[in-house]
Every structure is written in structure tokens, then in C-alpha cells.
Amino acid sequence: MQAFDTNVEAFHITHTSGIVNHTITPPASKSESNRVLVIDALTGRKSQLDNLSNARDTQTMIRLLDSDSNPVWDVLDAGTTMRFLTAFSAFNGKPREMTGTPRMKERPIKLLVDALRDLGAVIEYKEKEGYPPILIHPFKPELAKTDYIKIKGDVSSQYITALLMIAPVLPKGLTIELLGHVGSKPYIEMTLRLMEHFGVTSEWKDNIIKITHQTYKPAQYKVESDWSGSSYWFSVAALAKEANIELKGYVKESLQGDHVIVDIMDQLGVKTEFTVDGLKLTKQPVKGNLVWDFTDCPDLAQTVAVILAAIGVEGTLSGLQSLRIKETDRIAAIQNELRKFGADMIEIEKDVTYKVIPGTFKVDGQSVHTYEDHRMAMAFAPLALLGKVTIEEPSVVNKSYPLYWEDLKKVGFNF
């Protein structure tokens, strides 16, 4: 239960001491939860799933799967849920409309729909070609043109994952050829490893993934804490005067690609020790400027950009091409808000590589617009360790970390 109301226009946040010593359990992984929920649905919902995420995206997934007879599924603003359930619905034999928020209707789905149509799915666009809402009709295997799909490797891994999860239930299985550079590779690997946990084998050689027709087997699975969610605590540790933060629910050999936050923050002043229960974060000297490719971990980019500016370190961030089509245009959002603090993020290679310039960074009561994007709110909130900051639309965190503000309050942040 939240200790205060997040449905307000803004939070004005400060931190009096700058010292953070506490144990926190971040939310369970949204990425793992949403995958195992779809896989479980494909097993006939006979698995035991523990520690599912309380994030709105996952709760939306659960709500929709619980209403399988409902002819309209509204995913709200959940991109993962839209893509995964579009593929699932295309082959579960029930007519359905997939829709969402106005922003969701601006997020492309054409690549996935084209691939599903080639596999025998019957899908039509209800409004704008290439975008939700879409109407899904019962699967017609006789319309299948192929069981071999070619798709660009640098598109959202959610398209690829959506196809992979339904692959074993297709009459002839599925082979996917990833064209060009493969982005967000850890998310694809996570999908295949979770499928293996539920009894489905795959073969990934070079850029070709092959999955034969198989049957998922019910299993027990406990979801790990979310590494994206941990990144905000790395930020707190980096910006605090003193820090001794324990994060529960993490393992060293994680399925989640965002565990590289450990290596990134090792350069930016945070030491990580793995414990029996998770992680322990303490401060250490900053090692210098950062050069990092975020292709495989785009959800960390906003947090790292803000940390770099706040600690006065330049950073070259590449692999940011997917940030333009997230909950908002995250590139523009980061640039707009960093400039309020005297910093900037300048373009080096169009839509791909950017350089964070700390400039005259200062926290002095600025108001951060969050663009209906949970990660904007959570990336900028730790700046309250350096001075008063206002975060607009604080309820956006419900998308992935509903108890974020309550957890910050536990460690001395004042609202």
C-alpha cells in the first residue's frame, strides 16, 4: 500500500542529509514476468509463477489473459503487452481487437503484423495502416506463405520475442533470420532461455534461430528482481554523500541484459558486491569519462545520462536508435530536461550516438517534465540528493515501479 497519493500534478523532492543506508527490494522483472505469462498461457495456464511484477504493464497482461473471452483487449500504454499479445491472439483461435492509448496508436506494429500474416494470421488495421488498433481474426493455416521469416535484427526485440514464443505451437515451427546487426540481443537470449525452462528447445546459429513444432511443459518459475529498476538505486548511490544500499532479489548470473549497470556504474563511482540475497552498493572513486554502447540495454540510457551530467563526467552514449519510439521520444526528452540544469546531450551520429556534456550542472528547484514516461521520472528524481527538484506527473512510475516513491521516502527523500 502506498503511503501517499501519487495522483497529483507534481512532487517537490529534497533529501536533507545526503546519506543513504537502507535495504530495498525493487519490483520483479517486467521483462521476465511478461514472457513467462505468455508462455504459461500457451501451456494452458498450468504453471506456477512466483514473484510476478506489480508493474502496470504486467498487471495489464494478467488482466487481459484472465479475460480471454473479451473481444477487445486494451493494453493501455504497454508496448510489450501489445506486441506479445498480438502474436498470442493471432493463433489462439478467437477474434479480437487490440488497442491502447493515443500514444500506443502511434507506435509501429507493421513489421510484426506482416510476419504474422506470412505465417497464416488474419489481421487488419482498424484505423491507420501499420499502427494499432488492429482486428485479429481466427488463424487460417492454409493461408501461411512460409515458416521462414526474415526480420531486421535492429528492430525492437519485442517483435522478435513475440514471434519466438509462438513458434513451437505453429504447425511447422518457425525459423527466423535476423538481418544485419542484432540489437537488444540479451532480451532475445532471455526469451529462448525461458522457453527452454518450459520445455522448448531452439537452435541459434549465426543470425538464424530455428524452433521446431513442440509442446510447452508446465513448470515452476520465480521471477528475479528487475535490473532496470535497480539502476535508479545505482543513481542514488552515485549522487549520495554516503551510501550503503542493499538491493534484494538479484543473482549474478542473470537472464536480464540490464545487469550491465554493474559494469557501467563501476566506472561512475559505485562499487557492487553480490550477497546471498542480492547486491550491496557503496561509493568509490569515479574512474573517468564513459564510452558505452546501449544497443543491448536501451532502458539504462536515461538514467546514465542524468548521472553523468550530475557528477560532472562526459559520456559518449551509442546504440540509442530505439529511444525515439519508446513511451516518448526519449532522446528529445533527455535533451530538453538536461538543459534545464545547465547540461546537454548533443548528437554525434544521427539518432544513434550522443555525447553528454555536464556544462554548469546545478540542481536548484527545477521542474522536470516526464512526458508520460516512467523512466524520465525515475531517472531525474535522485537529483534531489543535490538540491530541490520537482517531478511532474509522478504517477507515471506505476508502469514499471509502483512503489518507487515509497521506497525513496524510506531512505530519507522528502516530498
Share of residues in strands: 15-25%
Q: Low-confidence parts lasting 5 or more residues at pLDDT below 50?
A: none
Q: Roughly what percent helix?
A: 25-40%
The chain-level structural class is alpha/beta
Please provide a brief summary of the model.
The protein has 415 residues and is of the alpha/beta class.
What does this structure look like?
With 415 residues, this protein is of the alpha/beta class. It has twelve helices and 22 strands. The strands form six sheets. The protein has a four-stranded mixed beta sheet with strand order 20-21-1-22. A hairpin with a 3-residue loop joins strand 18 and strand 19. Helix 4 (110-118) packs parallel to helix 5 and helix 9 runs parallel beside helix 11. The model has no long low-confidence stretch (mean pLDDT 95).
